Amino acid sequence: MSPTGDASSRSGSARRSSTLRPLVQQSTPARVAARVRRAIANGDFPPGSQLHEVALARQLGVSRGPLREGLQRLTQEGLLTAIRNRGLFVVDLTPENVRDMFLAREAIERCAASVLLRGDHAAAADALEPLLEQMARAAEAGDSHGVAEADISFHEKLVALTGSERLRRIHETQAAEARICVHALGSTYDNDVQRVAEHRAIAQALREGDAELTDRLLVAHMADAVAELVEASRTGQVRQEAD
Amino acid sequence: MSPTGDASSRSGSARRSSTLRPLVQQSTPARVAARVRRAIANGDFPPGSQLHEVALARQLGVSRGPLREGLQRLTQEGLLTAIRNRGLFVVDLTPENVRDMFLAREAIERCAASVLLRGDHAAAADALEPLLEQMARAAEAGDSHGVAEADISFHEKLVALTGSERLRRIHETQAAEARICVHALGSTYDNDVQRVAEHRAIAQALREGDAELTDRLLVAHMADAVAELVEASRTGQVRQEAD
DNA sequence: GGCGGTAGAGTTGTCGACATTCCTACGACA
DNA sequence: TGTCGTAGGAATGTCGACAACTCTACCGCC
User: Which terminal residue of chain B has fewer beta carbons within 10 Å of its beta carbon, N or C?
Assistant: First the structure.
């Protein structure tokens, strides 16, 4: 699952059967990072809040050593900010930060889409279909949170389908950032239906192999999301720590 | 310098004078990561070679704790690969890896260029000019290595000019990867002059605000580099550890 | 001669303890 | 009343030591 799971697949050109692949054993810091990343994305640690080492270490059942190593990974990702002798804090959702998040996300996802379009884009569209249906079901049920989750999963799948290790690794961080936004700024999208429509359009353009349209739709989709989130952070419905 | 230097600039909207900005104090793991990253980029540790903790810690004058935390950052970046109970290894330059490096780089740099084009692209072109001259001088002197270094610096500047923290952080890794390639696959570019011309063309298109041309030139430039490097790694002039 | 097993050295993984720094609360003083 | 100074507590930063694992070299055995 984790693109930096520290596998032992160093020699890339070794072709093994699916049942006899090199057994991966991810390191403790990698697992710590994955757990804490998920917790942050899940809203357990609001933006701006501090992560206390002793408490976290006890909760995860490890000592402070491996814990700190894992947290350093998240700091490198930009999910955490370190202040010397003070501690680690979850990234703040300032308008600048939100804009920057989606700028980088746009870079990765546009590239991912263009890769898919150079390959079997019809198959890629097929693979995205289940997530579209899931999103539509959530929208019908009025489950805005479910729509948002399916939304992000759609984009994760889009990137994963490229098979690019680096795009996947970078985007893992970006997906977490998106989930932070959803949890902190609320998934109060009264336009769930439009959201579903946007994704359907993207998948459709992808299926038809229309590179220019896919790109334009992706950019527009990102712009929409940014505008909405920045507006939400302006109107003050931010759920963050007083610190 | 380091985009993940763990500054204390959490509250983003604070406007201070240039002389009275918050004093940054980057953490030891961040400095360790920067040093080792530079060493790897400099070719001190060939692709595939192992990094020994005790020796490194002694060289850097820190204990194994902070050292390991710093190395975890590089592992997260993808510059190192961890194998449990065995150690950390510098990323291998398999053709797949090289292609993936430049795919992700293309994603970031195209985005960076488009950001610059939406802003003051003439000023951006001005800022790139010194690096072009430096590259030209190196080319005239027959200093292929100098050309390659100026080349990478050019691209670093391109991304830095956007002011995007995230693009910068991601690209820092990619610049290191590019330098690894140069050192391991040789900077034997018999076409230094063409290389300079390519960059001049990119800067020129940027200055004129021609978005489509800039984008096309960037993509072509990347494709050239990948083809060259993959070819070099095929013909076996790889300088990597027997391990 | 080849194969399996074993002891040794060296490395990584993990932990607990100490030093240092920061924050808070309290009290003295102008 | 406000400010300065200080002591206490709690957190982070760093280190050294022990445990566990891997690799290598050597030896016995078939």
Answer: N
- Is B12–A115 a contact, with Cβ atoms under 8 angstroms apart? no
Single out the residue in B48, B65, B90 at which a domain terminates. Answer: B90
Shared domain for A138 and A187, answered yes or no, is: yes
Share of chain B above pLDDT 90, in %: 78
Q: Do A216 and A122 belong together in one domain?
A: yes
Q: Is B181 part of a structural domain of the chain?
A: yes
What is the residue-wise DSSP string for chain A? --TTS--S--STT----STTPPPP---HHHHHHHHHHHHHHTTSS-TTPEEPHHHHHHHHTS-HHHHHHHHHHHHHHTSEEEETTTEEEEPP--HHHHHHHHHHHHHHHHHHHHHHHHS-HHHHHHHHHHHHHHHHHHHHTT-HHHHHHHHHHHHHHHHHTTT-HHHHHHHHHHHHHHHHHHHHH----TTHHHHHHHHHHHHHHHHHT-HHHHHHHHHHHHHHHHHHHHHHHHTT-------
B39: contact with A, CB 8 A cutoff: no
Write the pLDDT tens digit of every residue in A108-131.
999 999 999 999 999 999 999 999
B10 interaction partners in chain A (CB closer than 8 Å): 48, 81, 83, 89, 92
Pair (A130, A42) in one structural domain: no
Nucleotide C14 C1' to residue B40 CA (A): 28
Decide if B13 is inside a domain.
Answer: no
Q: Which of B75, B92, B96, B172 has the highest number of chain A CBs within 10 A, making it the mutation to test binding with A? A: B75
Considering the domain architecture, whether residues B107 and B177 belong to the same structural domain is answered as: yes
Range of the domain at B71: 28-90
CB contact under 8 A, A78 and B29: no
> What is the model's pLDDT at position B50?
96
Displacement of CA B178 from its chain's centroid (Å): 6
pLDDT tier, A191 (very low <50, low <70, confident <90, very high otherwise): confident
A189 compared with B111, residue with greater pLDDT:
B111
E strands present in A76-212: 80-83, 87-90
Report, as an integer, the average pLDDT of A79-96.
96
Claim to verify: residue B133 and residue B177 sit in the same structural domain: yes
Q: How confident is the model at residue A15 (pLDDT cuts 50, 70, 90)?
A: very low
Tell me what percent of the residues of chain B surpass a pLDDT of 70.
87
Residue A83: strand pairing partners: A87
Q: pLDDT value at position A206? A: 98
Domain count, chain B: 2
The interaxial angle of helices A192-208 and A144-160, nearest 10 deg, is: 20
CATH number at residue B76: 1.10.10.10
